[in-house]
Amino acid sequence: MRREAALFGFREISTPIFEHTELFTIKSGPNVVEEIYAFQDKGGREISLRPELTAPAMRFFVNELTNCPRPLKMFYFGQCFRYERPQSGRFREFYQFGAELIGNPGPESDAEVIALAASIMRRVGLRQYSIRIGHIGVLRGALAQAGIDADQAPPILQKLDKKEYEEAKARMAEAGISSGEVERIIEITKTRGPVEALDKISGEAKDHLAAVFRILSDYGFTNVEVDLGVVRGLDYYTGLVFEMDAPVLGAEKQICGGGSYSLTELFGGERTFSTGFGIGFDRTLLALEREGYEAPPYHIDAYVIPVSEKMKDEAFKITARLRQEGISAEVDLMGRSISKNFKYAASINAQRAVIVGEKELAQGSVAIRDMASGEQRLVAIENLVPEIRCDQ
After folding, report:
1. How many angstroms separate the CA atoms of 185 and 124, rounded?
2. Which residues pair with residue 79 across a beta bridge?
3. Burial of 219 per CB tally in 10 Å (0-12, 13-18, 19+)
4. How far apart are CA 106 and CA 115, in angstroms?
C-alpha cells in the first residue's frame, strides 16, 4: 500500500494517537463522543484516542502545511479506536490506511484519488472488488428543490445513506415534502449501474461524474459503477463520494470509503477543497484471506556460518558487509554445530548458506551452499556480494 501511494506521488505523514476531543466533535458532532474513547487526562484536558485519521491529517495541514505547493498529496497508516461492539470486520482497535489530496475540486483530483484506492487493492492482490461512485450534490439539489434548506438536510441524508428509508420518509414528511417528492428522492438513491445511469440526472453533478468515469477509464479501471445511494450525511462532504466493496465479506463488505470535502475552515484555516479515502486495513486482510491469498513465505538471502570459534569475527565482518550492500543476512548467534546450522538455515528459508572456514579463508574465499539444491562452491570474498546478487 505504501509503495503504491508513493508511485502516485503521495508522501507519508504521521499524527498522534491522542488528539483533543474537540477535533472530532467539530468534525462529526457532539454525539460522536458516545462512539469513541474520550476522557480527561491528568491535566484536566478533554482528549481522545483517534477514531479515524482524516481530521488529524487536516489539523496537521492547517497547522503546518498550508504554504506547501498544490496539489498536496499525503497518506497515512495507523491505529484507530472506536467504542463499538466487536464483530467480524469491526474491532475496537483497528488499522486504517488513507490518503488525502488537497488542492483542486475538479474531476481530475477525484479520479486520481479513486485510482489510487483501486490501484492499492489491485497491488495487494484482491481479486474481487467494486467501486461505487455518487455525488452528494444530486440529493442535496433534490432536497433543495423540495424546499429543504441546508440545515435541515443532514439528518435526512444520514438516513438515506444508511438505507433506512422509512425513517427518511418520516423525516421528509415532517419537513413538509409531498409524498410524490419523497418517492422521487427515494428513487434517486436507488439509481445504480454503469456510467449510462447518469442519463437519469442532469446538471453539474452529472458532468463532474462523467468526467471522473472518463479519467478512470483512461487509467484502466472499468469495475466502477454509478451509485447515487452513496450519500454521506455529514455537512463537510462537498461533491463526489465513493465506496469500495469486497463481496467475499458478505454483509460487512465495505473496505474503503471516501469523497471530496472541506474541513479546514472548521479547524481555523481557509476553505480548502480536498478529496480522500480511508481503507479498513483489517477488513482488507480478511477479504484477502477469504479469497485464499497466501502471503509470500519469509526468506533471507544469506545465512553466515562460522565453522569454529576462531571464525566468528570474520563471519560477523562478512555479515556486516552483506547487510551494507542491501543483502538480507543472518549469522549464527547460538554457537550451533555445522549440521544444526544447516537445519536452522532451512527453517528460516535462507536462500544461501555462507560457510566461513579456516582453510577457505586462508585462500581469501568462503563456501556458498545453495540451500535448495545442496550444491556448494568456493567463492572469493571479494566476489561474494555480486555472486549472491546474481543468484537472487
Report:
1. 38
2. 95
3. middle
4. 15
Specify whether the CB–CB gap between 369 and 355 falls below 8 A: yes
Q: Which of 368, 256, 258 is nearest to 305 (CA)?
A: 368
How many angstroms separate the Cα of 27 from the Cα of each of 33, 48, 51, 205, 236?
12, 14, 12, 24, 8
Q: What architecture is domain 300-391? A: 3-Layer(aba) Sandwich (3.40)
> Is 101 buried (19+), middle (13-18) or exposed (0-12) by CB count in 10 A?
buried
Would you kindly state where each structural domain of the chain is located, as residue ranges?
2-290, 300-391
The structure's pTM equals 0.86
Does domain 2-290 fall into CATH 3.30.70.20?
no
In this predicted structure, the answer to whether residue 266 has a pLDDT above a threshold of 90 is no
Q: For the residues 239-260, what does the mean pLDDT come to?
A: 93
Q: Which three cell numbers stand for residue 381?
A: 570474498
CB 327 within 8 A of CB 301: yes
Measured from the Cβ of residue 36, the count of other Cβ atoms closer than 10 Å reads 21
The residues near 353 (Cβ < 8 Å, ≥ 6 apart) are 302, 303, 304, 305, 341, 342, 345, 368, 369, 371
pLDDT in tens, 297-339: 899 999 999 999 999 999 999 999 999 999 999 999 999 999 9
Residue 252 pLDDT grade (very low, low, confident, very high; cuts 50, 70, 90): confident
Q: CA–CA separation, 148 vs 302, rounded Å?
A: 69
